[in-house]
Specification:
Blueprint: E1 2-6, H1 20-34, E2 38-42, E3 52-54, H2 70-82, E4 89-92, H3 99-102, E5 109-112, H4 122-128, E6 133-136, H5 139-142, E7 149-153, E8 173-178, H6 185-195, E9 199-204, H7 210-217, E10 226-228, H8 234-242, E11 246-249, H9 259-266, E12 271-274, H10 279-282, E13 289-292, H11 295-302, H12 310-320, H13 323-348
Parallel strand pairs: 1-2, 1-4, 2-3, 4-5, 5-6, 6-7, 8-9, 8-11, 9-10, 11-12, 12-13
């Protein structure tokens, strides 16, 4: 198939800095190319890809002074629309920005929604654009928007060769993510201290979360059982997660997916996670970790870690959360969309006339 992947322009693909969506787009694009699809990636010019690269801006917007980040995205979507007939399917990862452009587009297209959907302002938007085909990254993510035109659910995936499984010999617990209220770092620190087990924190402190860090976290980092190691890149994640006894994921919000969960699983590391958002779709209680509801339950789960086979955790990742599985899931959706479009065109033009722009 001739496939267009449209990434946000805030980070390169793959991202040089923090960028979950851009990482997923990278893994998906590379896997689609490996499967012999003809892929064009619309992204910033500093992106690295095996696909054809079409760039509106020379570098990621976060790496330079950009007063209006919306303008380049509008130009990018307009470029995609100008070239729409070149593709069998167009896959957007730019949230709802493309909706006004693609509302009457006949060329098969779909948008994966990567973020939080429980925002009040989204209700009238999805009432208006209820026919736009969208894909969720977890069934939990869908709940605030039952009126949306859900055409599939695809869990994220990672390349199987990205991380090797570790043995968990580090005698510490791990926290990986952002220092922000929703990620539950305070809960993780409380669990580790109560259990008497060292906790290593690899986390980004964003400017937006600086006040939260100063008021709630800074003093906690002074505890002798807590070690803040800063941000870790892809190479360092393998050792950080692979040596950990377990990953703590005591979130305070309805996480749409949680890439760190499958990163830990790829390293053979069990996860102890709060039962919110996508967690029960990813963690099988007693198999690749433990799903708990309270800090007390998390502490008790630590005593059960010896029952988890780390190779079973790794095999669970390979079976359910590889980038190959993710790409194949998307291709099946692409094919269904293409078949639906062919049927629609035939019904409108029974004599064979074909129009693939707007009707």
């Amino acid at each position: 198939m001739k496939i267009a992947q449209i990434a946000p322009l805030y980070e390169a693909v793959p991202p040089k800095l923090y960028g979950g969506t851009e990482r997923v787009v990278h893994f998906l694009t590379e896997e689609l190319v490996r499967l012999d699809h003809d892929v064009t990636l619309f992204a910033s010019g500093d992106s690295k890809t095996s696909a054809r690269l079409s760039a509106i801006v020379p570098e990621a917007l976060r790496l330079k002074k950009c007063e209006d980040s919306l303008a380049p995205h509008i130009l990018q979507i307009e470029e995609v629309m100008d070239r729409a007939n070149e593709f069998d399917v167009i896959h957007f990862h730019t949230d709802y920005l493309n909706f006004p452009f693609t509302n009457n587009l006949v060329v098969p297209h779909v948008t994966t929604l990567h973020g939080k959907l429980s925002i009040p302002e989204l209700q009238p938007l999805y009432n208006k654009y209820r026919h736009q085909p969208v894909i969720s990254i977890s069934n939990s993510q869908r709940q605030p928007l039952p009126q949306a035109n859900w055409v599939g659910n695809v869990h994220h995936g990672l390349p199987c060769n990205l991380f090797r499984p570790g043995k968990g010999k580090g005698e510490y617990l791990a926290f990986l993510g952002r220092v922000s209220p929703e990620k539950g770092l305070e809960n993780a620190i409380a669990i580790a201290i109560a259990a008497g087990i060292p906790l290593k924190v690899a986390a980004k402190i964003d400017k937006a979360d600086k006040e939260y860090y100063e008021e709630n976290i800074r003093e906690l980092f002074e505890h002798p059982l807590v070690e803040y190691v800063g941000e870790v890149n892809e190479k360092k994640k393998e050792k950080f997660l692979g040596n950990a006894m377990a990953l703590l994921f005591p979130i305070n919000w309805e996480e749409p997916f949680g890439m760190v969960l499958i990163e830990a699983m790829a390293c053979g590391t069990p996860v102890i996670a709060f039962n919110r958002g996508s967690v029960p779709e990813i963690i099988e209680d007693g198999q690749n970790g433990f799903v708990v509801s309270t800090k007390k339950q998390a502490i008790r789960a630590l005593d059960q870690l010896h029952k988890i086979d780390r190779m079973v955790v790794r095999h669970s990742f390979e079976e359910k959360f590889s980038s190959a599985r993710m790409a194949n899931d998307y291709v099946r959706i692409y094919e269904k969309l293409a078949e639906k479009t062919r049927s629609k065109v035939k019904s409108i033009y029974p004599l064979g006339e074909r129009k693939l722009s707007a009707i």
